[in-house]
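Work Package 4 report. The design task specified in the project plan requires that, given a folded chain encoded as structure tokens, an amino acid be chosen for each position. We show below one input record used in the internal validation round.
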């Protein structure tokens, strides 16, 4: 049996590869699905119009900063990856796919996007979903990983026992669920539990981000350090940088410096917002 492993985060590639030295039966090619389907437009995601719309959205997100040009350099082309996977499976009926997914919105969104395109290969597509499953960390304690790269190489060998073929029912139900999410056309997906995704508007993360913006100037890299250290439900920094720029455009946040570098520009609340917040605290009126 020739195995193709699918992961949804770059750090997972090397973590999984290390397990091959422990168990040679795991050896196979590793394919990374690079896009983050937990954010951004999904409408008509499987046709040319929807694919181009999503690409243009990402270009807008990534421009004028550290990520400028990434959407244009060709290194992210998940649709080509799926086309290549289908070609391989058609050419060799001994090849199988193992989809590795941890319990997080990024992996689950990627799973839905991928499995919706593989229904022609029933019996050859397996899922390994680490849903509320205990593992042993480096200190010997039990923990519940939310990402594959948190697992030690020897734990991947144990995890392989979870592999099971995706059923006919799952191919149908999960594809329908993904279609429903795509048609809702919202910008943020959250994992509610199991494989249940719910959706929110693009501004979902704004309020938590604003909690760390005060009346004094603060470097954006320090703002994000505080945000990621204290907020439980987060997303990628590229998306958050875009949202911060939207807040600046809306006048909810002031900035100074070079916006192309998180280390070179600072943000703070506008003066009237600070005065309003101070008035609420002094009067006890939070309505």
């Amino acid at each position: 049996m020739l195995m193709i492993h699918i992961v949804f985060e770059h750090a997972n590639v090397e973590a999984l590869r290390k397990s091959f030295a422990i168990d040679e039966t795991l050896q196979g090619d590793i394919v990374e699905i690079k896009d983050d389907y937990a954010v951004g437009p999904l409408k008509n995601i499987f046709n040319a119009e929807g694919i181009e719309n999503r690409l243009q959205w990402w270009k807008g997100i990534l421009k004028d900063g550290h990520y400028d040009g990434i959407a244009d350099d060709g290194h992210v082309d998940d649709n080509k990856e799926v086309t290549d996977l289908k070609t391989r499976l058609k050419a060799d009926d001994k090849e199988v796919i193992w989809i590795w997914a941890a319990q997080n919105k990024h992996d689950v969104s990627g799973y839905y996007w991928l499995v919706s395109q593989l229904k022609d290969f029933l019996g050859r597509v397996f899922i390994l979903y680490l849903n509320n499953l205990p593992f042993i960390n480096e200190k010997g304690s039990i923990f519940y990983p939310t990402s594959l790269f948190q697992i030690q190489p020897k734990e991947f060998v144990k995890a392989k026992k979870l592999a099971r073929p995706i059923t006919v029912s799952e191919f149908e139900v999960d594809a329908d669920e993904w279609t429903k999410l795509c048609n809702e056309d919202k910008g943020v997906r959250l994992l509610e539990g199991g494989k249940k995704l719910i959706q929110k508007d693009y501004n979902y993360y704004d309020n938590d981000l604003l909690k760390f913006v005060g009346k004094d100037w603060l470097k954006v890299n320090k703002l994000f350090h505080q945000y990621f250290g204290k907020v439980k439900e987060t997303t990628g920094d590229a998306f958050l940088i875009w949202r911060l720029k939207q807040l600046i455009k809306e006048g909810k946040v002031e900035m100074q410096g070079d916006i192309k570098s998180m280390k070179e520009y600072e943000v703070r609340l506008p003066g009237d917002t600070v005065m309003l917040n101070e008035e609420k605290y002094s009067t006890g009126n939070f309505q």
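The longest strand covers residues 95-102. Validation will be extended to a larger panel in the next phase.
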